[in-house]
Amino acid sequence: MELLSGELEVEKHVKYILSVEKNKDSFESVTMEHLRMNGAYWGLTTLDLLDKLEIVDQDEVISWVMQCQHESGGFAGNIDHDPHILYTLSAVQVLALFNKLDVLDIDRLSDYICGLQNEDGSFSGDIWGEVDTRFSYIAICCLSLLHRLDKINTEKAVEYIVSCQNLDGGFGCTPGGESHAGQIFCCVGALAITGSLYHIDKDLLGWWLCERQLVQSGGMNGRPEKLPDVCYSWWVLSSLILIDRVHWIDKAKLARFILGCQDKENGGISDRPDDAVDVFHTYFGVAGLSLLEYPGLKAIDPAYALPVDVINKIFFGRK
Ligand code: GRG
Ligand code: ZN
C-alpha cells in the first residue's frame, strides 16, 4: 500500500490519550465517567498498537480495574457503579494487555457470565435482562480468553446468533432486527471464535459489507444511506477479514479516509473529517489502520480486538 508511516501522528495521539486520562474535568472525561472501563480499553489498546504501552503505570491501572469488580464477579464501568457484561469484557481485555489475567478469580468471573445465558441461548447484559447479540459476542469472547468456553451452552449460543441472521446476509441485535455493521462484527466474531463461520453465506454478507464503502470519501458507513464514520472501519473491516472478503474493498482509500480524520495539531481521531476527536474513534481509527497493515503498527486480531501478540500469549503461551 502506498502509505507513508509519517502520515499517522503517533506522538500526538499518544499525548492526546494521556491527556484525556489526566484531565479529569475535561468534557470528554466527564461524559465518560460511567463507562471509564470501556475508555481504558480503547485508550490502552491504542497505546499498545502504537507500541507505547510502557508509558502507563500498570500497577495503578490493574488496582483500579480490580476495584471495579462487583461481588457477583462482573465488572462495572467505574468504582461503585453496577456491573455489566459490557464493562466485564473491557476489564478482561485490559488485564490481558498487561499479561495479568492471573489476578482474576476465573471461576467466579465465568460463573457471572454463564449466569447471563438464557434458555434460548441468548445473553442478557446484566440482571435487568436486555438481550442483544453484542452480549453473545462479549460472553463468548470473554470466556474464550479465560479458557472457559465449555462452561456455557455454545451450541445454543450459536443457534441464537444464527436466528438473528437476515435475508441480506447481515445480522441484527435480536431476531428480525435490522442488519447493522456493529452487530455483524459481534455475530461474525462470535461465530469465528466458536468455529461456526460455516453458518454464513460469505459472498452475500461480503457484498453487503463491501457496499458500506462510500465511493466519494472512501470511508465506511454502518448501514445503507448513512454517513461514513471512522469506527465502521473497524466493524466492517474486521468482519470482511474474518469471512475472507477484504480484497473486495479499496483498502488504500479507506486508510486515506481514516488519516484525514486526525486532529493533526492536538492529536486524536474523529468520526469524520473536521469533527471533534474522542478516544473511541481514536481507537477504532488506529485499529482500522492496523487491520489495513499500516506501517509501524502492531497487528490486531479481528475477532478478539486485541493485539495479535497478546492473543498468542494467551493461546500459545508465546509472544
Ligand atoms: C471489543 C471492539 C469490541 C467490542 C465489544 C460493544 C460491542 C462489543 C460491540 C458494539 C457493536 C455496535 C453495535 C457498534 C455500533 C456502534 C455505533 C457507532 C452505533 C451508532 O449507531 P447509529 O444508528 O449510527 O446511531 P449510524 O452510523 O447508523 O447513523
Ligand atoms: Zn462512530
From TrEMBL:
Q: Does the keyword Magnesium apply?
A: no
Concerning Pfam families, the annotation shows: Prenyltrans
Name the UniProt record assigns to this protein:
Geranylgeranyl transferase type-2 subunit beta
Classify the source by domain of life: Eukaryota
Q: What EC identifiers does the entry list?
A: 2.5.1.60
Q: What does the cofactor field's note say?
A: Binds 1 zinc ion per subunit.
Q: Which PANTHER family match?
A: GERANYLGERANYL TRANSFERASE TYPE BETA SUBUNIT, GERANYLGERANYL TRANSFERASE TYPE-2 SUBUNIT BETA
Subunit description: Heterotrimer composed of the alpha subunit RGTA, the beta subunit RGTB and REP; within this trimer, RGTA and RGTB form the catalytic component, while REP mediates peptide substrate binding.
Please describe what this protein does: Required for male fertility and root tip growth. Catalyzes the transfer of a geranylgeranyl moiety from geranylgeranyl diphosphate to both cysteines of proteins with the C-terminal sequence -XXCC, -XCXC and -CCXX.
**Catalytic reactions of this protein:** geranylgeranyl diphosphate + L-cysteinyl-[protein] = S-geranylgeranyl-L-cysteinyl-[protein] + diphosphate
Supply the InterPro entries for this chain: PGGT1B-like (IPR045089), Prenyltrans (IPR001330), Ptb1 (IPR026873), Terpenoid_cyclase/PrenylTrfase (IPR008930)
Q: What cofactor(s) does the depicted protein rely on?
A: Zn(2+)
Provide the GO MF annotations for this entry: metal ion binding; Rab geranylgeranyltransferase activity
Organism classification: Eukaryota, Viridiplantae, Streptophyta, Embryophyta, Tracheophyta
Q: Mention one GO biological process in which this protein takes part, according to its record.
A: gametophyte development
